[in-house]
Amino acid sequence: MPGLVFxxxxxxxxxxxxLVTAAFFLMRAVPGGPFAGERNLPPxxxxxxxxxxxxxxxxxxxxxxxxxxxxxxxxxxxxxxPDYDVAELIAAGLPYSLxxxxxxxxxxxxxxxxxxxxxxxxANTWVDAGIxxxxxxxxxxxxxxxxxxxxxxFAIYLDWLPAMAxxxxxxxxxxxxxxxxxxxxxxxxxxxxxxxxxxxLEVLNAGYITMARARGLSPRxxxxxxxxxxxxxxxxxxxxxAAAALLTGSVVVETIFGIPGIGRYFIxxxxxxxxxxxxxxxxxxxxxxxxxxxxxxxxxxxxDPRLRRA
Amino acid sequence: MSATxxxxxxxxxxxxxxxxxxxxxTAAVMLVLVCLAVLVGPWLVSTTSQAVDWDQISxxxxxxxxxxxxxxxxxxxxxxxxxxGGRVSLAVGxxxxxxxxxxxxxxxxxxGYLGGRVDQLMMRAVDVLYALPFxxxxxxxxxxxxxxxxxxxxxxxxxxxLDMSRIVRGQAMSxxxxxxxxxxxxxxxxxxxxxxxxxxxxxxxxxxxxxxxxVPQVILAESFLSFLGLGVQEPLTSWGSLISExxxxxxxxxxxxxxxxxxxxxxxxxxxxxGDGLRDALDPMRSDRRDGA
Amino acid sequence: xNSAGPAPVLRVTGLQVSYGPANRSTDAVRGLDFELxxxxxxxxVGESGSGKSQTALALLGLLGPGARRRGxxxxxxxxxxxxxxxxxxxxxxxxIGLVSQDPGQALNPYLSIGKQMLEMLRSHQGLRGGEAxxxxxxxxxxxxxxxxxxxxxxxxxELSGGMQQRVVMALALLGKPVVLxxxxxxxxxxxxxxxxxLALIATLARQSGTAVLLITHDLAVVRGVADRVLxxxxxxxxxxxxxEELFAAAVHPYTAGLMACAPGLxxxxxxxxxxxxxxxxxAGDWPQGCPFHPRCPRRLEKCETSMPALEQISASHWRACxxxxxx
Lengths: 310, 293, 327
Description:
The complex is a heterotrimer. Helices cover about 75% and strands about 0% of the residues of chain A. Chain A has helices at about 1-30, 45-50, 60-70, 85-120, 125-140, 145-155, 175-205, 205-215, 220-245, 250-255, 260-270, 275-305. In chain A, helix 5 (about 125-140) crosses helix 7 (about 175-205) and helix 6 (about 145-155) packs across helix 7. Chain B is mainly alpha-helical. Chain B has helices at about 5-20, 20-45, 80-115, 115-130, 135-145, 150-175, 180-185, 190-225, 240-250, 255-280. Chain B starts with a helix and ends in an 11-residue tail after the last helix. Chain C is of the alpha/beta class. Chain C folds into two domains: about 1-95 and about 175-260 and about 275-290 and about 310-325, 3-Layer(aba) Sandwich (Rossmann fold), CATH 3.40.50.300; about 105-175, no CATH class. Chain C is about 30% helix and about 20% strand. Chain C contains eleven helices and twelve strands. Chain C has helices at about 50-60, 85-90, 105, 115-125, 130-140, 150, 160-175, 190-210, 220-225, 245-250, 255-260; strands spanning about 10-20, 25-35, 40-45, 65-75, 80, 95-100, 180-185, 210-215, 230-235, 235-240, 310, 320. Chain C has an eight-stranded mixed sheet, with helices on both faces. In chain C, about 45% of the residues are buried. The chains are: A mainly alpha, B mainly alpha, C alpha/beta.
């Protein structure tokens, strides 16, 4: 196992490198700089600013400078918020995005997998059609439609739950998180339910499942003890990258509910040409994806003994 | 039988199966209705999407006011705006899907058919591209190219071809080993010839399915961009922009959110239903069919 | 049948299995009668399409949802005909066991051997912990596997085909069933392993008194192991009798043909192997009258229109033929 981790780590580096490089040059290719725009700066001041941030150097040098910084865990200063380092900004937003994403993730698994199993068990009945129909709605209707609607119904009309996730003084309490977590989790619940159902149906056709039944094991035992494990493999594949996306915060949900997470930095950074901020988020996202892919691989080996070559 | 003949008989059975799938057929009918509404509607509605009705700013839907679905904060008729916005959203669906199908099919078929190291390299590139956050790329592209509508179409299409290329590559790889391809190779047909005349026709089925499933993805992407304020610019509008406005005016004018939201959701839902139905129709051997066959 | 001996443990009468709509049904089994006695090995011989596998599935209630079954199946004088899924769950494994053709498909690749065995013991006999592992190990030894404790920790893919099939048998026998249905248990194995597994089946039957229904298409398999043989064709029984009787003097042309086709150790190398003319049609494509008549060298006119009934010609020998070989 440690060998696997190390190998993955090694092969992750080139991918990360490509990611960073692509993001870096793409970002710079966009016209306009962080200090162009409305602020009318006297040329002298602008020169000084550019020099201070090394923006007057050639792109190649800036790139190398950035890479160097990465090795030290330095993601550079933010252009938009001059008092802060990108690393600091990300660290500040991280807890919010993590809480939101983490809860949504757990909710998605807790509801999605059982829904899929039930749908597979009662395949082609109205229970199945119902679950699959609802999940199709969950996938189709975008979260920027669902989230405001949720706020409209539950916060404005019914006044059961607060509309803003972060309230002055009390921070992001549990009640505040209900709506954003649900909005974020809904499409994931739907996807996971569909994948689980389809994979479970395939597994239930396998010879060893029929033989398990032939041995007189109860249907419940066959379903949960024999069929679930292999059926989870495609779910695990899906969940890896999905978790990374969830944890980096959903831009829409964060915007609508006023959550100061990482997702918002991303958009604002792109629009305001805050190079380092955007890069920082991209690097962070890339690292997460690689880490989660590793977790997925390890999980595969845990689930399927045939993959565990000594 | 030639490859095209094989594909043709394959289609007939599929269409019958599709016709028997009630959900998919209902979805198809609704989509046709939406398309018609969007194409013809603007001429039927009494006002245009730009006209400002100074007397009725932010009024709720009513049958008498002349504004069936109400007006927005600028006094513009919501129905008219929704119809015009629908044109944009559906146009994105078509054009961007076309772009992504084109790129995806050519890339995937080539990789799958050629196989070996070329294939490995090409697919590795796809893997790396997958790691790039989609949002990031689209935002960059729109910021770079400006918010011109055609460029947005192209940008979204250029992002979405990855899935298509993987699916097509898989198909091409399995087709590669089929007898009619080996026969064509044995008679000296060039690679390009084989690709064009034998591989591509047999891909039509799966391409159609995934194209139908790509359309909602691109419409979603455009709506998403518009929602964030990065999509089409005024005076053009799309369903995403309308929803964005609607969510801002939610407390005072909920109809501005609800109607565009419903229409977008419904359209996407129908597209997904249809795509699922097509997939079931073309691949009846799947174990996870939902109609008991 | 043996009227003075022990009672049959399984009694099947008029078993029919068909698929599809009533007016265009595919009949896989068209009237099967037999009895199975404790401790004996009854071989059901037939080509593919003869209905033998469907019989096995019917006996375990594992026929697909589109199947229609008629006739009666009595297990120790209790009817299996009206069982629902819960009822079948109580019968399977505990009273009737199944060993199927491909051991690679029969074991769950994701669970260790030990887990799969212990779960059987827990579910059927309520055993846990050390007592359960002890039983599991002794069963593994009973099926001829050495190093039982180590084996419990292994996974199916780490075992050879023969070993896997032994494990499958061990699992089938853990519930102590009175009937074991073995559907082509050796077809997927190599020749040496085949004979080992067959010998194992025979021994287990004798020692524990489990009745074995051995389904096969291979006559060589039958010869060494079976006490009685039932020959199926076209979903029907054509001949039934003790193994020695059939091999010495088969009376049905089909059986005789099968015997003649099988190369024995005493056939001259280089000489032409006789073969049965024609091919067995698929299930549902049976002609009128005797299903074998299109290929039968002894067919008469009435064979084409009516099906001969099963007639007893000696204490244990039955045949269904209008024009049998000389007895």
